[in-house]
Amino acid sequence: MISPTATLLISCPDQRGLVAKIANFIYANGGNIIQADQHTDFTAGLFLTRIEWQLDGFNLPRDLIAPAFNAIAQPLQAKWELHFSDTVQRIAIWVSRQDHCLFDLIWRQRAKEFAAQIPVIISNHPDLKVVAEQFDIDYHHIPIIKENKQEQEAKQLELLQQYKIDLVVLAKYMQIVSGEFIVKFPQIINIHHSFLPAFVGANPYHKAFERGVKIIGATSHYVTDHLDAGPIIEQDVVRVSHRDEVEDLIRKGKDLERVVLARAVRLHLQNRVLVYGNKTVVFE
Amino acid sequence: MISPTATLLISCPDQRGLVAKIANFIYANGGNIIQADQHTDFTAGLFLTRIEWQLDGFNLPRDLIAPAFNAIAQPLQAKWELHFSDTVQRIAIWVSRQDHCLFDLIWRQRAKEFAAQIPVIISNHPDLKVVAEQFDIDYHHIPIIKENKQEQEAKQLELLQQYKIDLVVLAKYMQIVSGEFIVKFPQIINIHHSFLPAFVGANPYHKAFERGVKIIGATSHYVTDHLDAGPIIEQDVVRVSHRDEVEDLIRKGKDLERVVLARAVRLHLQNRVLVYGNKTVVFE
Amino acid sequence: MISPTATLLISCPDQRGLVAKIANFIYANGGNIIQADQHTDFTAGLFLTRIEWQLDGFNLPRDLIAPAFNAIAQPLQAKWELHFSDTVQRIAIWVSRQDHCLFDLIWRQRAKEFAAQIPVIISNHPDLKVVAEQFDIDYHHIPIIKENKQEQEAKQLELLQQYKIDLVVLAKYMQIVSGEFIVKFPQIINIHHSFLPAFVGANPYHKAFERGVKIIGATSHYVTDHLDAGPIIEQDVVRVSHRDEVEDLIRKGKDLERVVLARAVRLHLQNRVLVYGNKTVVFE
Amino acid sequence: MISPTATLLISCPDQRGLVAKIANFIYANGGNIIQADQHTDFTAGLFLTRIEWQLDGFNLPRDLIAPAFNAIAQPLQAKWELHFSDTVQRIAIWVSRQDHCLFDLIWRQRAKEFAAQIPVIISNHPDLKVVAEQFDIDYHHIPIIKENKQEQEAKQLELLQQYKIDLVVLAKYMQIVSGEFIVKFPQIINIHHSFLPAFVGANPYHKAFERGVKIIGATSHYVTDHLDAGPIIEQDVVRVSHRDEVEDLIRKGKDLERVVLARAVRLHLQNRVLVYGNKTVVFE
């Protein structure tokens, strides 16, 4: 519907005139802002904003926008990212044996809910190769045991480079990614099958069943080297009862997992998520 | 926590430079924007925004802000409202016989969830006088029948003027307010006990029971002269089952009604609701 | 986990001793009840129950259960159905052009969430043949226009008989099924893309957008010859805002539609839905 | 609507014929069952049931029901409770300084949502005496410090006996009740202001804010001597965003807390909650 847009995600120490300065930069170059949203974290003294404008009629060529904006950002001590809406990001989906999130992500990409490509699926198991073939996506089986983790992660990293991957989505990968890996490739979104921080770690549905909770949840977050403790992007829940066995929790949870993960991936791809500290601002 | 602020709610035909012009006006006068949110309705070609800034350090005295901003707004063909956060609005609560919304609104006002005064309660029944007395609020019993509606509405209007009322909240008033009245006093928020537009009109819980729905809802909206068809501010729902009799729907619905109405009143009092056409933009 | 079970769904005029009589019938024949649930509709004077027991150790052979229970049911003027949990029902999925519910139903059947077979897909468009082929399911393209509706429905009916279909699932079929058809094949579940009875008929998302609702929904119901007015099995909702264009409502709605339809189909397949009048009792 | 009823809550080792035996006991004495629900915990090998029947026309006098049923229950090794719907339970509400749950419980009791009396409020602070007076309820201020906890709990226990209390509701009491106290008076329902087991202990809203969750919750549970780890009766959640400061979480949480606590108290008063192990079966 809308022609290509540029988006700035900015965080900087709060001060007077920030909105004016940023808006002036866009207006002075002929840009039409279509969405501007902002948040001030008073505790941290931080101003956080997302501004999106139409490139149609914008006088600066794309490659000059970043240097031009840098001149404004530096005196403000701003951290910022610039994105273009017609950049097609490349996703690697990592899976283990469960196929529900994988199917869902592929379906959404085919249905154009995601402006992204999915050139490769990586797994520590061979089980889902058949799905990859069904949708004509490359599949790499990289089995991981304690002893070979380091070298297998090196292979995974190589694949990410080879496939020019922008984002790794852990679609029920069920393995811990090492801190060293994350340093080298930090853009990783995970789906955890509980309402974090309840039930961190393995077997959250079994733990939820044991505890007798009346609601279960799923959480999508960026991966950090603290297990299940990265910045949360999206969460959702569903009601359960004493009638639900562990297998019912797992089944109901699957519906949550795929929707929560898909929402998080979509928000990320639309450059609507700004991470600061261990939190996110989600500009919806 | 925050010193007094000013808020502009603006709608105008979309064009380049709107954010810049408005932000510049505030920055040029030394204001610090603490929240700016904006929405473009592409179908209507409308730009809608809410900007809130600290008055502390703002160079324009309060009474000059409106004329100064008018000079900017007129060439943009903008419709706009200016509000100050320390203005204490005065609410008249209109009730019939049910007390749950009334109690809830009074409790929230006492708990400082609303920055407002509630000097008067108006009712077509005498039943809730006792509540008014308990909380030391004036109570006016104005019984209404078909034959005296016009003259009773005149009395109601007189009371609103006498008590310097800014907002009427129909907290289960169960009577239709005439179009003539609304023209004279348009700031009226109602709670309807269904998920509109399902079950317009009387007895929505009975109708919901008849239809066998699995979810019931409540809707808070501005009152217009089309029954239950005004701009919706807030809605919420709760799950029901075949076990729920009509009286259970009514009981569960009460919990919805008071929360939905309270949220709508709070959003209105914080000047977060911008009405255009028959819709609202809610800047949360 | 559990060996095969038998399930009785019973509705009859309320009277003393119903639970005892039914439970005695099962106990006397050595059955172990694993779930018994019951509901009394006092307005209608109706007793409605679902009883499930293990066939393992039950002394009556399967083909004698119905006649034996009939002797008990007749004096009670009971309407009843008997089902066995290892009966694999056969589903025909009817679609138009949208694939999300179709994909979802097939995925769930493959994932064993449904104990059912899906031997055939019927559509008035050729678009989704490719999906049918991908999953090796027969696909019949039966285009329908006003002039040929009667003869095309005859063809559809023939296919249902040929494929020994127990249940038709309208997975976004977008066509009205005639009253004559429903009489001949009454087991039809539909998904409607609104929170019924709001937005009956075509284009509910456009209507929801026009009305400015803050929540949208989806409804799964049995099909009757009153449009979108059949007994509701399941509903769910999702929050929307002024930021959501019609296309966002459609996208968010798809996630609702597939989950709501899947829940309804699963409940039906597990013989948990008892229809009476224009309502359902859902024994969860 | 319905004449007085008797309710049996039963748990016993699973075996054939349980439903029949219990239903026969009621039928043989002329009782009309109006609700029967049952659950089997296959892992624990436990049968759990709730049966409610009309006393009108029941041949056994009330005081003979328990001994008569005991003759049936003993050979089944059943644990059971017998309740009558017209027994008016007596509640002591314990509070600290916050009034929202207190107001809500009182309002519901006045509105007849609870068939109970509230003769006394106990608090470690004097603040809410004014509310007690407003509604003509006795108020006992029992300040607690580390050094006097034991003797103050003795006073509290004495008050419970004096007022013939059946149930203590901790309506934001914010104090830990000792294990010794719980042994002497085990019927205690608490509201915890988080989605347990996330954020056990003090200041859950601050912890939720720190963690950056997108949803907050409230949990009502029976009190045991493990902090915030007792059997959960009811939970609910509400969505939050980066815009919500700690004070917003607290405000939004209050709406949850009062509804979740009220639901739990109501379910308990209607004898719909069966505790086994550290879990509940809630027969809704």
UniProtKB/TrEMBL annotation, chains A, B, C, D:
Protein keywords: Hydrolase, One-carbon metabolism, Purine biosynthesis
Pathway: Purine metabolism; IMP biosynthesis via de novo pathway; formate from 10-formyl-5,6,7,8-tetrahydrofolate: step 1/1
Domain of life: Bacteria
Enzymatic reactions: (6R)-10-formyltetrahydrofolate + H2O = (6S)-5,6,7,8-tetrahydrofolate + formate + H(+)
One Pfam entry name: ACT
Active site, UniProt feature: 228
GO molecular function: formyltetrahydrofolate deformylase activity
First-tier enzyme category under EC: hydrolase
GO biological process, one term: 'de novo' IMP biosynthetic process
The EC number(s) this enzyme carries: 3.5.1.10
Positions of transmembrane segments: none
Annotated ranges, domain ACT: 7-93
Gene3D superfamilies associated with the record: 3.30.70.260, Formyl transferase, N-terminal domain
Function: Catalyzes the hydrolysis of 10-formyltetrahydrofolate (formyl-FH4) to formate and tetrahydrofolate (FH4).
Family: Belongs to the PurU family.
Protein name per Swiss-Prot or TrEMBL: Formyltetrahydrofolate deformylase
